[in-house]
Amino acid sequence: MHVPDGFLDAPTSVATGVVAAAGVGVALRKARAELDDRTAPMAGLVAAFVFAGQMINFPVGAGTSGHLLGGALAAVLVGPWTGALCISVVLLVQSLFMADGGLTALGTNITLMAIVGAFVGYAVFRLVLAVLPRRAGSVPVAAAAGAFVSVPTAAAVFTLLFAIGGTADVATGKVLAAMVGWHVVIGIGEAIVTGLVVSAVIASRPDLVHGARGLATRAPLVTSEAAA
């Protein structure tokens, strides 16, 4: 999903940069309401997990690559605003130190993976959770659904940007078929990983899962050391 330098023309890259800057700016303000002393460390863990997950890349076509996005996972665990910030930090570090996604395309990548990935994933999560029984066990299922939808949606938005300002001589239909087709498959994997990770966190510390707030949860596990 990482878009390289020069893949989109300058006006499109500038436009996505403005969108990304505005989104990150708003997220910095809104994230204050999501974080507290217990959940702030979780944001760091989420960023580290997504960073590691995004290291697994494979070619999709038309000069782009596919990998886990992590937007829905981050949004469910720490909230959509904080989740978007987590993914943005990961993308910034990757572009600066690992040449994974171009610097001039950083705004595009943040728009696609941090903003679209986190907020589409979280919106679907909330919609699915609303129709499921109101208990913590429904959270991983809804999170997996959000993750599955968020990945091909981000790929479709990328295709739209490519149709507007793509510089490669590749038919838009071919890009759409490659990106959405592959990312539907990636979305299945992302849904499985997201569901398993959220389920594991809920089993041990449901109080740390933003998406489980207000739901009936079992008491978190207590170790013998903690009990002593």
From TrEMBL:
It comes from the Bacteria. One of its GO terms (cellular component) is plasma membrane. Its main location: membrane. The chain crosses the membrane at residues 6-28, 40-60, 72-93, 105-129, 141-164, 176-203. Gene3D superfamilies: 1.10.1760.20. InterPro entries: CbiM/NikMN. It comes from Nocardioides aromaticivorans. The keyword Phosphoprotein does not apply. Keywords: Cell membrane, Membrane, Transmembrane, Transmembrane helix, Transport. It is a multi-pass membrane protein. GO terms for biological process: transition metal ion transport. This is Cobalt/nickel transport system permease protein. Pfam families: CbiM. It is found in: Cell membrane.
